[in-house]
Amino acid sequence: MQYLVNVIDHRSNSGTDEEMVAIDAFNDRLRAGGHWVFAGGLADPTASTVVDGRGESPVLTDGPFAETKEWAAGLWIIEAPDLDAALALMTEGSKACNRRLEVRPLYAG
Amino acid sequence: MSDAREALTRAHREEWARVVATLAKRFGHLGTAEDAAAEAFATAAERWPEDGVPPNPGAWLTTTATRKAIDQIRRDSKRDGKHREARLVSSAPAEPLGAVDDDRLRLIFICCHPALAMEARVALTLRMVGGLAVPEIARAFLVQDTAMSARITRAKAKIAAARIPYRIPSAADLPERVSGVLAVLYLVFNEGYLATGPGTAPVRDDLAAEAIRLARLLHELLPDDGEATGMLALMLLTDARRAARVSASGGLVPLDEQDRSRWDAARIAEGHALVRERLASGEAPGRYQLLAAVNAVHTDGDATDWTQVVALYDQLVRLDGSPVVRLNRAVAVGECDGPHVGLALVDALEPDLAGYHGFHAARANLLRRLGRTAEARDAYDAAIALAGNTAETAFLQRRRDGLQG
């Protein structure tokens, strides 16, 4: 079972060097335990472009699809047998990146 | 005929959770288990009056429910083969617990999982473990049937989609998970015991009784858990005073004015025995055990020994220094050391509790005892404006109207 983990933030480019070190160490632990699928940081939502290709010509809109006070500043995709395991792992992840996290199941392909 | 009905009522009380829990394990799906259990009880209601009550009602119900579940799964897979819902992940406990490995315990823990919203946990527990019908739960919580039904459906869907496991937590997680279950049971109990909202009966006995039944089940499944024992004792000792707690005119009767002959002696004896059992264990008591001990003191002898109550609240404040706990301690100190001392402690809590009716009620009572009538009247008015319970409001009005001068 895979879970998408969104890193919740409300300030742009707010990560610190100290947090990066802790996140790297946490990612090593995820790899060692066989839980790591993917991880990455995201640029500020103001750098987003919304593309709508459903019509004859694509419609492009500057900015994120929803204006919110909080957004995802990064993400993990982890492998875990069940929600309890995912939550236990990401409690550590939350400590490492010093942010709240949203843990959301991915549908199996 | 009436024997069959009685047997069915008893079987529903004693076997519902076991049937749902067993089927959830076997078929890996809570919804299937719930539907099949409901169908099995409906079949029993038809058949038992005609055919007689089976020698082992529980086994009959489990077998019938299993057959219904298999039929349902066959029908579903014919209708839409690929639309199979996710199966529950279950496993044996990670470590031996000193507890019975009972599927009902798995059922309780999944219904009270911390990833579910509190109101969903309450609804799911009453439905899956308690066996209450959805309209009964909806009525108890003053929401529409459809809304309650949607709440339960959403919770089941989240359990399946997020893979909340059907499992007894590991020993390391157990205390916290048990305390999550106890919070759900206490909420159900208080909802029954101290119902809020205008027009509701002051005491909804059925919810309080249901909470006690669930607490009894949890205690039976986790006999060594001090807090589960404490919760059962707390509920029994509180509920024992129910008949004396509300007057004929519908007003709350304070403890020292209650007719003790109307207390339920059996519940008090059972509650006291549980509290003594915890004291004898020599383990440091948790919050519910301390609250149970406070209620044991209230129900011991002819009057409350307030020195003991203060000592217990001193311990509780060390575990949980929340303003409401400190308020209850201040009230006990007021009984022990006089209203001056109590009032000073209560007044210090104003920044935290100005919006809580209990704060104003406690102040009003202390001011009344000090003869500060005008201030007492204002405090009663503030308490009445904030109180949500009809019996409590009636009591506060009676006290306010009885002020001299």
From TrEMBL, chain A:
Q: Which residues form the YCII-related domain?
A: 1-92
Kindly give the SUPFAM superfamilies that the UniProt entry links to this protein.
Dimeric alpha+beta barrel
Query: To which protein family does this belong?
Result: Belongs to the YciI family.
Name used for this protein in its record: Uncharacterized conserved protein
UniProtKB/TrEMBL annotation, chain B:
**Residues in DUF6596 domain copies:** 177-277
| Gene3D superfamilies the record matches | 1.10.1740.10
Q: Where is the signal peptide?
A: none
Single Gene Ontology BP term?
A: DNA-templated transcription initiation
Cite a single Pfam family from the UniProt record.
DUF6596
Q: Which residues form the RNA polymerase sigma-70 region domain?
A: 15-78
Protein's name according to its UniProt entry = RNA polymerase sigma-70 factor, ECF subfamily
Q: Which organism is it from?
A: Glycomyces sambucus
